Amino acid sequence: xxxxxxxxxxxxxxxxxxxxxxxxxxxxxxxxxxxxxxxxxxxxxxxxxxxxxxxxxxxxxxxxxxxxxxxxxxxxxxxxxxxxxxxxxxxxxxxxxxxxxxxxxxxxxxxxxxxxxxxxxxxxxxxxxxxxxxxxxxxxxxxxxxxxxxxxxxxxxxxxxxxxxxxxxxxxxxxxxxxxxxxxxxxxxxxxxxxxxxxxxxxxxxxxxxxxxxxxxxxxxxxxxxxxxxxxxxxxxxxxxxxxxxxxxxxxxxxxxxxxxxxxxxxxxxxxxxxxxxxxxxxxxxxxxxxxxxxxxxxxxxxxxxxxxxxxxxxxxxx
Length: 319
Hints:
Blueprint lengths: L1 E2 L10 E4 L6 H11 L2 H9 L3 E4 H7 L4 H13 L3 E8 L2 E8 L3 E4 L12 E6 L6 E11 L24 E14 L10 E9 L11 E7 L2 E8 L24 E8 L2 E4 L2 E4 L13 E8 L9 E4 L10 E6 L1
Parallel strand pairs: 2-6
Antiparallel strand pairs: 1-3, 3-5, 4-5, 7-18, 8-9, 9-16, 9-17, 10-13, 10-17, 10-18, 11-12, 11-16, 13-14, 14-15
Helix pairs in contact: 1-4, 3-4
């Protein structure tokens, strides 16, 4: 063994790990090298001395091969160095510890850019106004809510538990919060819902014209082809009868600077500017089957606990 020479030997050095001083990969390598009890023992052993591979292995009771692997890891991270020196049987490598302490400077948080979009989720039972006609009703994940074909129950507080709402004619209105977005202009609005027609109990050939209004402005009508009862919805609860409405189609209305489209197909010339989104602190969304509809086939609106899509009503605005 050899002692360090001079009072200002390498153990007085402090290694500072910081993204400003070294590449992040180097800091990761240092952290990984230190994350090992045997390697920490080697660093502790080398604190007052330099030593050869055989001395380290012998004094720390390690196999030569194991000690060699740990030393390579420490040297690769820059925590020790080695040099060739004469030995009893030819040349040998002598290892030296390069620092007495390691300080990690954690990265500073990056500035968070203002969000360029807003995404809001509304449960299907959280409507604030309605006008419905029987047949109508609501169901939760465990049972029917109240009794079927009673429009008065649409005022009941239990409506908030609904995962499926159906009506033969009329509409439901939801109000999404409209938080202030300083200095931002809405570029597009998307509304996605799982919908189908409403028959009794279900019918594959049963079209229905389901219209959407935003802030009182009609933006487009989607014609549902069916009340789908041909197979069970993947999320529909087991208690729900197999002959009844099972699932809908995920339908997306988009309003942007060019007009309004449904599932990518242009339907009206209503633009995002026409919606006047900055006029009030909420966005009114009305969905249903109106008196003027050609196909008055009713509506089923599915929440995250019914149908095929694990989502409620989703409103997305890009700025």
